[in-house]
Amino acid sequence: xxxxxxxxxxxxxxxxxxxxxxxxxxxxxxxxxxxxxxxxxxxxxxxxxxxxxxxxxxxxxxxxxxxxxxxxxxxxxxxxxxxxxxxxxxxxxxxxxxxxxxxxxxxxxxxxxxxxxxxxxxxxxxxxxxxxxxxxxxxxxxxxxxxxxxxxxxxxxxxxxxxxxxxxxxxxxxxxxxxxxxxxxxxxxxxxxxxxxxxxxxxxxxxxxxxxxxxxxxxxxxxxxxxxxxxxxxxxxxxxxxxxxxxxxxxxxxxxxxxxxxxxxxx
Amino acid sequence: xxxxxxxxxxxxxxxxxxxxxxxxxxxxxxxxxxxxxxxxxxxxxxxxxxxxxxxxxxxxxxxxxxxxxxxxxxxxxxxxxxxxxxxxxxxxxxxxxxxxxxxxxxxxxxxxxxxxxxxxxxxxxxxxxxxxxxxxxxxxxxxxxxxxxxxxxxxxxxxxxxxxxxxxxxxxxxxxxxxxxxxxxxxxxxxxxxxxxxxxxxxxxxxxxxxxxxxxxxxxxxxxxxxxxxxxxxxxxxxxxxxxxxxxxxxxxxxxxxxxxxxxxxx
Lengths: 267, 267
Hints:
The structure is a homodimer. Chain A has two domains: 9-117 and 238-265, PSTPO5379-like; 120-229, PSTPO5379-like fold, CATH 3.30.2040. The first copy, chain A, contains seven helices and eleven strands. Chain A has helices at residues 9-17, 42-54, 120-128, 134-137, 173-181, 228-236, 260-265, and strands at 32-41, 61-64, 88-92, 95-98, 111-117, 144-150, 160-169, 192-193, 219-225, 242-245, 251-256. In chain A, 46% of the residues are buried.
């Protein structure tokens, strides 16, 4: 098993392209941004783009291709969306039908790719500031919950806000808010702090996705908008075809994690 | 002359709708957000939306209508884009052809409206924090310059970044950066501070739009991305038809100025 933690983003993408890397990318090319993928046909792209624009906290756009484009231009120079991710998921009419290792056969001239930010960027900053990130400590997946908060709809897309949760000691919540509020490009500040029932979460011990984590005495559950939201909204419309990365098998970009805010808002 | 400074946004829009108000909206419905208008046919809407998404500092989207919609849903409940702005400009093939008081005759079923943030929101916050805003002190228009920085292109849209300038005393620049960096929904932090020639401005005394302002000893020119950028990029493509507000004749929304950041990023 090759250790990709110190690899460059280009080396990780090359390995995925050559089929040498088919596993999750967590911890690879440390210090560089990883992104969620959504691919939709052009006839749904405008509504999806508008949905992301109307819901910037759960749907932070990092890069959107032009119709038919499969090469990235901004987050990396010329990475191939069809091959440079270790594993993909294909949904037809809202049902997952296959998990291919590339999209060379599946790519259509009317496809548009969307790369969306993930919480990876802000988790590193939290930990660097001494704020614990429990699911990293416990080596599990972050707990994710569907809330009773509705996103702003756009065209055919609508659906509930999905959130991730990290338990934070009371004295460190201010710091967690301060740090993430400065990062609107990767979900921004928490959308809710405290009582899970207020946002429609019945049992904090039973997340809808990911794994439950320990909440210690004196800690409060803190909820951030989650990148699962746009995929869930897209799938709810049951498009003829939609392609995403396989969970945990992310796109690794050439932008440093610490520069993501500047990258998105730069001119 | 009616004094609209203490009027509600609804009263200002009603007056514009009834033709009682045909002048600039500066200072009206104080404390409420004012927005730039761009109306484009649907065949250009995707590229324009993508251009705004790729250039969030100059192009902060406040609300985008669905195809054919002329009623706002978010910034105000049911305001009519066709009538509730005091004066409009119609551009055909990139040339201004008329300045109508409403769009009732001109509206097309394939039109999409875009409302974009303006610096009004952050100027009030600067002044409240003791940072001088020179063009307000001198009762002129803010000086605006075309730079040599290119925006990220999107489809048919491309063009240079346009900036506004406010001279700030050296000891208050940090405060101006701190305040505006917390407001990415209305242009965010400055894009350049200091030597104008670095960003292609030959003569700070001769702005491309607006009026020159006094720069006092110890003050440094501070440049923010400007909402003229997206309109300039749109007009550069010479669309068959494009409609904007007439300069200074803004859309007045029901959202409080002080809540614009929360409004845009709210879920």
